[in-house]
Amino acid sequence: SGPVFIASGEAQTDSAAVRITRANAGLLQGHLSEWQDSIEFEQPMFAWVADGRALSLCATVRRSEVGVEAGVDTLETHRRQGHGRQAVAAWSSAIQREGVTAFYSTSWDNAASIALARSLRLQQVGASLWVE
User: What is the DSSP letter of 62?
Assistant: First the structure.
């Protein structure tokens, strides 16, 4: 289980993350290449890019008429350096411009993810429970 956050208020606009499309899918080579097959389905998709490759990515992993949920992946060697924050900020801004709710959820034991949500001033609105 874990907390569920939403982006509320003004959209974050301070990110230089790159929107990922089929045209620049090569940025996902390496660890993030598994996301290439879902580029068309998980839009918007943004990545923090350095030296010609994505270090962190935020994409839409669930969508309904009223809201969407973020999925985040960061190269293990580049975690806790602010790259995920940049990707999530760009994604959240794009979602808010669509006029739907941007959801971000994580597990209680993922302190870095919770810190990311708090750094973006996302509002905790509940908790989720999943069964494997």
Answer: E
